[in-house]
């Protein structure tokens, strides 16, 4: 069984910048006050720092089986 990680930024993102600051892999990027975006999902290590630190619960990391 193989897994990859899906990283999704939800519509209630306010662009606070926390997620792209805490991500150790450069998966996320953005501009302050604009919705964050996923730059390179394949680099995600599944550390969940983005999800755990978002004050708005606006980012979700999900293992996908394939
Ligand atoms: S931490 Fe949450 S609200 Fe802030 S930019 Fe990232 S997804 Fe958006
Ligand atoms: S789970 Fe970790 S590596 Fe993946 S996007 Fe979030 S902070 Fe970056």
Can you describe what's shown?
With 66 residues, the chain is of the alpha+beta class. The protein has one domain: Alpha-Beta Plaits. The protein has two helices and four strands; from the N terminus they run E-H-E-E-H-E. The longest helix has 5 residues, at 18-22. The chain starts with a strand and ends with a strand. 20% of the residues are buried. The mean pLDDT is 97. It binds iron/sulfur cluster (2 copies). Residues 3-33, 35-64 form the 4Fe-4S ferredoxin-type domain. This is 4Fe-4S ferredoxin iron-sulfur binding domain protein. GO terms for molecular function: 4 iron, 4 sulfur cluster binding; metal ion binding; oxidoreductase activity. It holds the Pfam family Fer4_10.
Main β-sheet description: 2 strands, antiparallel
- Mean pLDDT figure: 97
What is the fold named in CATH at topology level?
Alpha-Beta Plaits
Shape: globular
Give the count of structural domains: 1
Ranges where pLDDT stays below 50 over 5 or more residues in a row are none
Bound molecules: iron/sulfur cluster
β content, as a range? 25-35%
Please estimate the helix content.
10-25%
Topology of this protein?
Blueprint: E1 3-9, H1 18-22, E2 28-29, E3 37-38, H2 49-53, E4 59-65
Antiparallel strand pairs: 1-4, 2-3
Bound molecules: iron/sulfur cluster (2 copies).
Keywords: 4Fe-4S, Iron, Iron-sulfur, Metal-binding
Protein name: 4Fe-4S ferredoxin iron-sulfur binding domain protein
GO molecular function, one term: 4 iron, 4 sulfur cluster binding
